[in-house]
Amino acid sequence: SLESAEEEYQGQTKRKRIRRKKQKSSLQNSDNLHGEQTESGMQETLVQDNLQLQQIDSPKISKNKKRKMKKKRHKEKMKAAGLVTKTTGVDFTYEPDKNNREEAAGLKDIDEKAESILDFLQATQQIYFADNKSAGTDSAVNPATAQELLQYLESRTISSSDVSLLHQLKSLVLLQDIERLKDALKQFQEQSLMPPDHTKIVTSLFHYWITDILPVRNRR
After folding, report:
1. For residue 198, which of 171, 168, 163 has the smallest C-alpha distance?
2. pLDDT at 59 over 60
3. From residue 20, how far is each of 7, 9, 11, 15, 23 by CA, in Å?
């Protein structure tokens, strides 16, 4: 009948409204629940951040970290001020033992040369003064200055370069090479670091070998 059909239609409509209310209600609830979950998640993140901040400020954990941060800040300040420049590594090999040995060997060599020159010049001086005295001529070498030169050699207050030059002169005398001795004597006069009066004495004593001693020996 018409009445029964209308009642059934109204019943369906009512049921639909109830379903829609339930769906709407359930959607609202799910939205609320999602919002609550999101809010709780944010709160959890904030709590973790706070914990991390507390840990950074904690003296137990952050002593080393604080020191590194302080060092980093200081470096940044220095860099900003233009006081930090890029450094390049210097590649070299340092061998102290080897260097010390070489230096000691060099000093020993100079010392031995100075000692041999001292003996040689003392002997030459004695012959020189004896010859001039016997010949009755005035010596071009001042005895006091000559003695001063020998004292310089004895106390080693003479440059190593002068020691080398003197040793070369002595070696050429022993080789009896007059021509090379003349050239070496000129070189000594040009390069010597001695006071002029000492240079003059050395030149006179070696010139004496060139003019008086070696020619006589060569004739023999």
Report:
1. 163
2. no
3. 20, 16, 14, 9, 5
Q: How far apart are CA 34 and CA 40, in angstroms?
A: 10
pLDDT at residue 64 in the model: 73
In the 3-class helix/strand/coil scheme, how is the chain assigned residue by residue? CHHHHHHHHHHHHHHHHHHHHHHHHHHHHHHHHHHHHHHHHHHHHHHHHHHHHHHHHCHHHHHHHHHHHHHHHHHHHHHHCCCCCCCCCCCCCCCHHHHHHHHHHHHHHHHHHHHHHHHHHHHHHHHHHHHHHHHCCCCCCCHHHHHHHHHHHHHCCCCHHHHHHHHHHHHHHHHCCHHHHHHHHHHHHHHCCCCHHHHHHHHHHHHHHHHHHHHHHHHC
pTM: 0.53
Region 137-148: mean pLDDT is 86
Average pLDDT, the chain: 75
pLDDT at 90 over 50: no
